């Protein structure tokens, strides 16, 4: 356990449990460092979310279930649908980030090797 964590734990009211040499005494000096905001590097803007809303809303594309199987969403390579013979409405699924649905193999695969 690092000394910083031990120091913080020993500041708690249960300092009786700490060894005497690890306890904070009121007369002990404390290091204080001044920091200015211009000392910190600026943060770069974040990329917009994958699920950002379009400027003009549109109805989502949903395949019609004419047969049992998988269908890739034509607008989002990570999204795919499963149609079963018992359901008219398909179930939607997503591949994990960095992966895309391969319409030929019917599996999620690395996005770099999937044609989209």
Characterization of the model:
This protein is mainly β. It has a domain at 69-113. 8% of the residues lie in helices and 18% in strands. The protein has one helix spanning 3-11, and strands at residues 69-72, 79-83, 91-94, 99-102, 107-110. It has a three-stranded antiparallel beta sheet, with no helix packed on it. It has a two-stranded antiparallel sheet with strand order 4-5. Strand 2 and strand 3 form a beta hairpin. Mean pLDDT is 76; it is low at 5-10.
Summarize the structure.
This protein is mainly beta and 116 residues long. It has one helix at 3-11; strands at residues 69-72, 79-83, 91-94, 99-102, 107-110. The protein has a domain at 69-113.
Mean pLDDT: 76
Order of helices and strands: HEEEEE
Shape: elongated
Uncertain runs with pLDDT below 50, 5 residues or more? 5-10
**Widest sheet: strand order?**
1-2-3
Give the SSE layout:
Layout: H1 3-11, E1 69-72, E2 79-83, E3 91-94, E4 99-102, E5 107-110
Antiparallel strand pairs: 1-2, 2-3, 4-5
Keywords: Signal
InterPro entries: Chitin-bd_dom, Chitin-bd_dom_sf
GO molecular function: chitin binding
């Amino acid at each position: 356990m690092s000394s910083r964590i031990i120091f913080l734990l020993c500041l708690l009211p249960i300092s009786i449990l700490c060894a005497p040499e690890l306890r904070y005494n009121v007369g002990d000096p404390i290091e204080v460092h001044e920091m200015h905001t211009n000392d910190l590097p600026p943060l770069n803007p974040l990329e917009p979310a994958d699920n950002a809303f379009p400027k003009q809303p549109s109805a989502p594309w949903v395949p019609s279930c004419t047969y049992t199987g998988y269908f890739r969403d034509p607008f989002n390579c990570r999204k795919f649908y499963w149609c079963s013979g018992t359901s008219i409405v398909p179930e939607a699924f997503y591949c994990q980030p960095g992966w895309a649905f391969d319409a030929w193999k019917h599996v999620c695969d690395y996005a770099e090797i999937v044609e989209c």
